[in-house]
Each structure stands twice: as C-alpha cells, then as structure tokens.
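If your schedule permits, I should be very grateful for your opinion on a structural question. Thank you for your consideration; the sequence and its tokens are set out here:

===
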Amino acid sequence: MIASIFTLPPRPFRKVFCLLAVFVALALPSAAPAQDQPDSDKKVFSDKVREGLTKFGELQSKEKWDDALALIADLVKTAEPGSYDEYMLNYIKGQLYLRIDQTPKALAPLEIALRVSDQHNYFDDKEERTVLKYLAQIYYGEGSAKGITPARQQECFIKASEYIGRLVNKERTNKSLNPDDVLFYAYLLLNRVQVNAEKPDPVLLKQTQKLSEEGLALTITPKAEFYRLLLSTLILQNNYVDAAEVLELLLQKDPTSKDNWVQLSAIYLSLGADEKDKEKARENNIRAILTFERAQAIGLLKTPKDNYNLVGTYANIGQIEHAAQLLETGLLNGTIEPEKTKWQYLAAWYQQLNQAQKAVTILKEAAKHFPDSGEFDFMAAQNYYGLEKFDDALMEAKVAATKGLGDKTWQAWQFMAYTAFELGKYEEAVEAADKALSFPASKKDAQLPGVKEAAQKAIDDRNAQTKALEARQKL
C-alpha cells in the first residue's frame, strides 16, 4: 500500500501562531448613563462597570497586568448574562491573557465574548474574524502541545477547525477568501484524519480535498502546500492515478525535490504491480522507468535500491536483455548491492537469453564475492554440464563441494560422482560417491550406491586387466 511507502505532510504550524497581538488601549465609551439607553443591545457599559473601569486605564499604562486581570474578573461577576458588559469584559480579559502570553487562558473569555456577540452583533466584521482566527490558532497550539492525550488533541483540533471553518465560510460568502486561512483549515482537517489514518473519515477527507482544490484555484500561482494537501487526500483515498498527476505538477514546479521523485516512482511501481490489465500494467511500468531515468538525469534516485528497482521494472516489461546489462553493470561497479539473489537473477536471465557461457562467467564472478559458499560454483558446474564441458563441470563441482553447500553439500559430491563416472574417472567417482553417501540425505538417491559399485567394478576390472597384461609380458 502506498501509504506505507509515502509520508503525509507534517503538521503545519507546529508552534502556535504568533499571538502577540498588539494590545490596543481600550477607549472606554463616554456615553450617556445606562438608564438613558433603554435598548439593551446598545454598546454601552452599565454604570457599575463603567465606574469600575475607571481604574483600568492607570493599571494598563503601568502594565500592572495581574491587577488589571483581577479588576476585570471582579467586574465580570457583576455582569448580566448576555449583556454588553459580559461581552466587553470577557473580550478585554481575553486580550489581556494574550498580552501576557498566557494564550490557553484566553480561550474561555474569548469564546464567551463571541457567544454573546453572536446574540447581539457586538463584534464588527473585522473584530469577529480576528477572534475566530485567534481561537482557531490557540486551539491548534493546545492540540499540538507535547504530551497531550489523543482524546484531548482531537477535541482541540475539532474546536480549531470549527472556528477556522466559520471564518473561511464568512470569507467565502463575502468573496474574500484568504489562501492562508483556507490552507490552515485544510491542514486542521487533515490532522483530524491522521489521528486514525488506518480508517480515515471519508467525509473529512473529501472536505479536505475540496478545500485543497479551492485553494489551488484562488491564485495564479498557488502555494505548493495546497498540492501536497491534495496529494495526501488522494493517497489516503487510494486514488493513486490522480496522486501521480499531482506529483507530476509538483515536479514541474520543483524538479529537484527528491521526496516527490521517490513518491512518484513508488506510485507507478505500485500501479504497475496491482493492475490486472496487462497493457495498463505495462504503461505504468514504463512510467516508472521514465520517472527513474528523468530523476537520474539530474542526479537523483541513484541509490542501490533505486538502481535495482529500475532493473526490475525493465524485466517486468520483458526487456530482459537491457535489465541484465543494467544489473551486471551495477553489480560490478557497486551501484547495486551484490546480494546472492541478484547474481542468481542475472545468471538466469543470461540463460534465458541463450547466453549460457555468459551465465557461467557471471556465476564464477559471483563466486568471488561469496568465497565461503560453494553455491555459485555448483551452479557454474551445472551450466558447464549443460554446455557439455564435462571436465570444467567436474572441476567446478569439486570447488563447490570443498567450500560446502550446507545441508546440500552432498549434492555437489553426488554430481561429481556421476560426472566423473561419465568421464571414466572412476577413482574420483568412488571418492565422491563415498563422501555423498556419508550424508543421511543421500538416501534420496537410490542409484548412487550402484554408481559407486559400477565405478569400483570398473577399477577392479581395469586392475585385473593390467595384471593379466603384465603377466603375459613376463612370459
């Protein structure tokens, strides 16, 4: 699955947004007394609150913030629920907490101010947008804090996305969408999705995708983050075809991005492997090849793993000869890890290409890289036998048997016994048969004892003939 290969974008804005809001001196209204203002929705303090706030200006000018907070806290207790007093005092309290960099404590008063304003339209449009953004940013900062529980994190991200979502909806209604706000909203939704990446919420995913596409359409040169967001949503939905198109667009903008080349190659490889339609599978494998070669042309995707993936992809589309050439070059110059299986593939490919002698050469080269194992020597022996080069086959089999093949060592001695017997080298045949028969596994070959007996009989007959000839020569 691609999700196991590719990483989603990191959460943006890991540090809380800059919340050092410039604290504006609160000009206390000099309106008529409350009894002269019968409309409770008027933006006027009650007499009691107005009187209490006369001390606020001095505390503010002297930056006695603790005293100022204590004053506001006492006044809040006297405010009528839903009144302008409650709204404004909480708004001031929230700004004070922001001013002294105690942002989490600003949440409750700012939310109260927003709730009361929603009832009576106290905030003007600019102020409301500012508060919505602050609330979203603070909740995001809380959710990103170290050591937070998953449940609390999700709660914070939900609240943050609700506030920034409300802001974005206002901007959308007023046709004044801010790309940064859309981006923040989309990232928040993606963070909520990532909490359970194994079973992502399809509704949130679609919403994030829609926001990403909306952000891309806002400007002529959209931010690359919108492409990455869109890419993440597509991958999480297993829509690798469209994900590849997004990566191609990203690489047009920045062809030096190694991560994008890695993701694109992995997607094409995955599509090629999973596609049941042979023609479509071939197309995706060709795209993977072109991706590797385009990246390598600018010095990227040149790791041993990348080089071997390129080899394997050529093999997948039936270009065995080219795959073999690439693999041989890589194994010899070290740009591909010289693992046993890779040497075995290379030898097998040359056999498939009817280049048996070349296969033997590769096997003997491989044997140099694994001096303690007789595996490749034994394979070379078998290939020599196929070429009817029996003496060479016998020699390589002896090397293999001497080095050892683990629990299969007896097979090398067995091969030697039969080959030596065919060549009339009966002493070698008997010796090899004896060594093969010393392994319990040799019992699988019921004919081997007979080969030994036949070889021994040939030796005995030859010796008898020699003795008889010597006797006649003495007469």
